What does this fold into?
Amino acid sequence: MTVTDLVSYEDALASYDPVMGLEVHVELGTKTKMFCGCATTLGAEPNSQTCPTCLGLPGSLPVVNATGVESAVRIGLALNCEIAEWCRFARKNYFYPDMPKNFQTSQYDEPIAFDGYLDVQLADGEVFRVGIERAHMEEDTGKSTHIGGATGRIHGARHSLLDYNRAGIPLIEIVTKPIVGAGDRAPEVARAYVAELRELIRALGVSEARMEMGQLRCDVNVSLRPHGQEAFGTRSETKNVNSLRSVERAVRFEIQRHAAVLGDGGTIVQETRHFHEDNGTTTSGRVKEEAEDYRYFPEPDLVPIAPEREWVERLRAELPETPLARRNRLRDEWGVSAHEMQSVLNAGAVEPIVATIEAGADAAAARKWWLGELARRANEQGVELASLPITPAQVARVATLVAAGELNDKLGRQVIDGVLAGEGDPDVIVEQRGLRIVKDEGALGAAVDEAIAANPAVADKVRGGKTAAAGALVGAVMKATRGQADAARARELILERLGVTE
Ligand code: ADP
Ligand code: MG
Ligand code: ZN
It folds into this structure.
């Protein structure tokens, strides 16, 4: 199907009600793998972090990683789930070269956490509750690299390389209940859910959850049903959608595609699909296996997991404040609207601003620098705000110098320039670039006299009572002092010299 065959988003929503299901895999940041002691360091030499267990060699036996279980319980609790009294691992059988055991150790009908929810906040401030069906433990697969094909896919490749360093790294799969009632905001809800989940995972400290590194991956299920119909339609499952923007686009595209197929009297096949970052479309993958194809059965080599209630309660009591609650608290403390808070969040500026305030800046100034000048720089360079080469303490120092009248905004921006260029701390740059505001009354007075002498017509207007015209003279003074004059003081002196009072 080409993009032009799609039904417009508005038309699709006029006829159908979308239902979604989001499956998120989080790679835990444990030091060792889920069922063996191999290291999990990224970027190691291929196959240097493997052992008989994660290579699935005969006779090897797995042992469960306690931190992996603890992280799973903490994630489950943070998602308001029940924690199983007793549960087991299960073998999910399939043959695939990057799965050397020929089964994945996962959980099936006995997940460690189930029946919870996550509240997510939409752009307009409204909170939408997403039901969580389950969060279960499993392990990651190895990685194949196909050589010789045009697209990096297996088709047309001459040979493939296999790296088992990732095989056995702990994963938590978090599956939502069918998400209904989002209507035309379905794409936004999907994105907000994944964003909120990512924040939550980071707040728990169980993973860095960087989507671009594959530490958080999302499969997007979408189906449509005619308005008023109770039963769900057939879903498609778009795999490995690896950015927030892509999640939103994939949902939107699938809604339009399903509507086109259904509107033509066609049927949706239950299949997995691939998302294409370049044009925002999806294409057919493979026809979806049914659960029975995997011949799940309880893992005989691992003991059941029975989390003690006292331990679970202790973990519950130690949970950090949820990101949503924290954002609401910060919003009140900073005195900003839900909408403004949303832009702070979208800009990735929450942590930098918090740290800048802790380093002594006031909230408004911290927001202004990060969302203004620094966001602009990050945007120009196509990097995250937090990875600009400037620390919150340095931003706080600039804000403090501005608040003290030592710098004005323009000079402050030049100091920021210097810090980003690697010239050192703000005070050093102020000194070396000679950026301090000219407060010396003598020098300022001389600049004022020159400005008046050079602009006699303007000066006359001001003398005649048009004090607004003084702005042009202030401008001349600022120009003459390369922006370093104290503008307010310059204006006072101009009015004084011209004998007018306001
Ligand atoms: P699978 O392993 O086949 O992908 P899961 O149960 O793990 O199945 O995940 C399916 C996801 O899709 C869940 O989030 C579920 O709530 C959701 N879902 C199930 N049926 C539908 C449907 N008809 N339309 C949209 N989403 C659905
Ligand atoms: Mg799935
Ligand atoms: Zn191993």
